[in-house]
């Protein structure tokens, strides 16, 4: 069996263990699947609140748990699902409902990485069945946003005309009940001159992701302002003349990764690493604003077969809130934050699944405590349900809303006048569409407000 991702990190997993139950085919990929110890703790919803696994939590279908998916994958790799096991409908349903939240990598006793296992599964299925137009559309978001101005207008037209939404569902499988996020007219463009920072603490590199660049560019400006206020010189990572497609902004490749398009994801990753490696070698911290995009650099690239370059950049890649918390602990962070005027209710804090998966919510709490007299409340660590394009897909729209009903939507209804913070673009989109009118903001925006 040819695998599309690099599973060599699992080369020795389970070796010498008679009870490891490693499937007959699949090589190191089979070993990655078999790290599950079948304790079935992931099927116990009473064990406490967590992320894992959103679709199991709302469906109670065992196949939708991490362990349930492992058992189906083992059957596939053992030849029990026929000659083309990756097209088996039972396996397909279970894997399609995985939202790649990475919760299992943190909460599972043996850190099953179902998010990356799903990427391999999708790559295998894509090779057999090809790609739908919908998959190509969502996966190619970074390309059409840059190249085709007319396409940038389609989401707005579709959102305002019911008949277009209906056609979109009929022919492309995009739910007519959900609004598409609309790109702004003026995406972020790197300033021609960098601001001089007197008495600077150090240099940092800001990696600007596709979603923030084209949909929420003010967040980038807020983050730069906050970092500069803390006396950091901010370098915006952008392509140079000998980068492939030098006129197109960098993109982490998250949309390609999420749809199992490994070759395309690798091409994006190579563009990013070419620019970021010199900064990593110089010891500069690489900061990301969008959790899944930064974690592509820090985690997913290691599975794309990019070797030591990916490892080196991963060592220096960190989320915005993690960086601030780290600098605070090191006593290097000096932010002249002031009390926020007019706060009458605690701000609700919705964590992105990937923030929970890497423990970044602790960093959020540490930074929020810096704002004088600030009141806030963390929501339960449950998935918002949007999960990239998942919540927009016709066959997934209903279960995506069920996921949101676990924690997010009840909290919004109970606190309709409360401000809300969400660092994840998908989370903000879910709140805007299904909430009670609150306008969610990023931590960078909150901190800029507190700077006065």
UniProtKB/TrEMBL annotation:
Superkingdom per UniProt: Bacteria
Listed name of the protein: Fe-S oxidoreductase
């Amino acid at each position: 069996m040819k695998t599309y991702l690099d599973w060599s990190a699992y080369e020795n997993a389970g070796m010498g263990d008679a009870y490891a139950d490693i499937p007959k085919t699949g090589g190191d990929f089979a070993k990655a699947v078999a790290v599950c110890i079948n304790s079935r703790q992931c099927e116990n919803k009473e064990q406490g609140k967590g992320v894992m696994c959103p679709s199991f939590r709302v469906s109670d279908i065992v196949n939708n748990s991490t362990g349930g998916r492992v058992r189906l994958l083992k059957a596939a790799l053992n030849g029990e699902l026929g000659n083309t096991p990756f097209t088996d409908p039972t396996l397909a349903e279970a894997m399609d409902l995985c939202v790649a939240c990475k919760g299992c990598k943190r909460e599972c006793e043996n850190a099953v990485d179902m998010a990356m296992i799903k990427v391999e599964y999708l790559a295998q299925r894509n090779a057999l069945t090809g790609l739908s137009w919908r998959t190509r559309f969502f996966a190619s978001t970074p390309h059409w946003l840059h190249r085709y101005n007319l396409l940038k207008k389609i989401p707005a037209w579709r959102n305002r005309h019911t008949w277009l939404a209906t056609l979109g569902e009929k022919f492309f499988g995009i739910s007519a009940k959900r609004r598409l996020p609309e790109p702004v007219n003026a995406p972020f463009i790197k300033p021609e001159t960098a601001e001089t920072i007197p008495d600077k603490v150090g240099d940092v590199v800001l990696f600007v992701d596709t979603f923030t660049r084209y949909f929420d560019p003010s967040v980038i400006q807020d983050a730069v302002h906050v970092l500069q206020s803390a006396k950091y010189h901010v370098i915006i990572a952008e392509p140079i003349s000998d980068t492939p497609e030098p006129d197109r902004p960098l993109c982490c490749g998250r949309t390609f990764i999420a749809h199992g398009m490994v070759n395309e994801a690798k091409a994006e990753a190579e563009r990013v690493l070419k620019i970021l490696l010199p900064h990593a070698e110089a010891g500069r911290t690489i900061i990301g604003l969008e959790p899944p995009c930064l974690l592509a650099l820090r985690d997913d690239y290691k599975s794309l077969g990019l070797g030591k370059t990916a490892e080196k950049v991963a060592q220096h890649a960190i989320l915005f809130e993690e960086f601030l918390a780290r600098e605070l602990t090191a006593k290097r962070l000096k932010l002249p934050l002031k009390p926020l005027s007019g706060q009458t209710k605690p701000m609700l804090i919705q964590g992105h699944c990937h923030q929970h998966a890497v423990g970044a919510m602790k960093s959020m709490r540490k930074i929020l405590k810096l704002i004088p007299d600030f009141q806030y409340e963390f929501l339960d660590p449950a998935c918002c349900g949007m999960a990239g394009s998942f919540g927009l897909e016709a066959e997934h729209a209903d279960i995506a809303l069920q996921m949101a009903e676990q924690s997010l939507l009840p909290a919004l209804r109970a606190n309709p006048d409360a401000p809300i913070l969400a660092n994840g673009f998908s989370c903000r989109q879910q709140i805007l569409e299904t909430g009670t009118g609150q306008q969610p903001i990023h931590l960078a925006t909150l901190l800029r407000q507190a700077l006065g």
